[in-house]
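Notes, p. 3: input format for complexes.
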Amino acid sequence: MKTKLIASLALILACGATYSLAATAGENWETHCAKCHGADGKAATKLGQKMKLKDYTNAASLATVSDADLVKATAEGVKEGAKEKMKGYKDKLSSDEINDLVKYIRAFAKAK
Ligand code: HEC
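Output follows (112 residues plus heme C):
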């Protein structure tokens, strides 16, 4: 009886933890990234269209880019020559948060 109770408590806690993790990446995306890349990852925002950002819901747009490259772009930013196209977020976000954001970005293409 007691073991059963502990097992269900553990299950509830485990679900809660997974949920809050996903919410964190979603919240970070919303706070830091959505104004350019779009809440839905399509970059159909004013800024996104101006900068001709990729539609992350289209699996082809990041097909040749590795997760490591996505992590690097998010952490270090994206430069074209000396010009900064996107600033890096390594001062604002932990590496766990950045890894979660990369999973979040990949999920846009899978959800379609
Ligand atoms: C001010 C607008 C802006 C914001 C805010 C922004 N980005 Fe970007 N992002 C860009 C631009 C511009 C590029 C370069 C696109 C290119 O070279 O075609 C880019 C590129 C990227 C890339 C490289 C892959 C690609 O699309 O070429 C990743 C990954 C990325 N951004 C993730 C993020 C994440 C995660 C956040 C939030 C933490 C974020 N960006 C916030 C503008 C932005």
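Residues 32-33, 35-37, 47, 51, 53-54, 70, 73-74, 78, 85-86, 89, 101, 105 surround heme C (CB under 6 Å).
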